[in-house]
Design a protein that fits this description.
- This protein is α+β, with helices and mostly antiparallel strands.
- It has one domain (20-154).
- Helix content is 18%, strand content 33%.
- A hairpin with an 8-residue loop joins strand 1 and strand 2.
Length: 157
């Protein structure tokens, strides 16, 4: 059984961020079946970290955004793919041509980078303000995907 001894109270804490365009990086992945208004549909939860600028050195926010896979969500999925197209092409070799099927696996999405328009919204359950992606930016700068050490080690010579 793995063990861990907590060494600090420091955790990455973020404040509510202003509406605007922010560079982002996908840092986590989960998948499941929706239980909300799209009940029974597949979804991918992307843990997304937002930054103050394109150097990706000053994080200002992080939360999970869900991409749901019913036909009615095609527009959102197309926008997400377009916003990370350079990153996605680097990691999969796919260039997102129209008609090309794309598989949203953990290995394909972790490390993707792009730009999104972030908006403050009221939570339905509590009424408090929180941040959400309003739209994935398709007309902003495109970034290379982050390459992890493990991936670098497994590349052929």
């Amino acid at each position: 059984m793995p063990k861990f001894q907590r060494t600090t109270d420091e955790v990455e804490r973020f404040e509510l961020i202003k509406n605007g365009y922010y560079p982002f990086e996908v840092t986590g992945y989960e998948q499941g079946i929706s239980t909300g208004k799209t009940q029974g549909c597949d979804y991918v939860g992307l843990r997304v970290k937002f930054f103050t600028d394109a150097t990706f050195t000053k994080p200002i926010g992080m939360w999970t955004e869900r991409l749901t896979f019913p036909q009615s969500m095609d527009r959102e999925l197309n926008r997400f793919l377009t916003s990370v197209l350079n990153s996605f092409a680097i990691c999969t070799g796919m260039h997102g041509e129209v008609g090309q099927e794309v598989e949203f696996t953990e290995g394909a999405v972790i490390g993707l980078r792009g730009v999104a328009y972030v908006k403050q919204v009221k939570r339905k359950d509590s009424g408090e303000l929180t941040n959400r992606v309003d739209r994935w930016a398709t007309d902003k700068e495109k970034f290379a995907r982050v390459v992890t050490l493990d991936e670098e080690e497994t590349k052929p010579f």
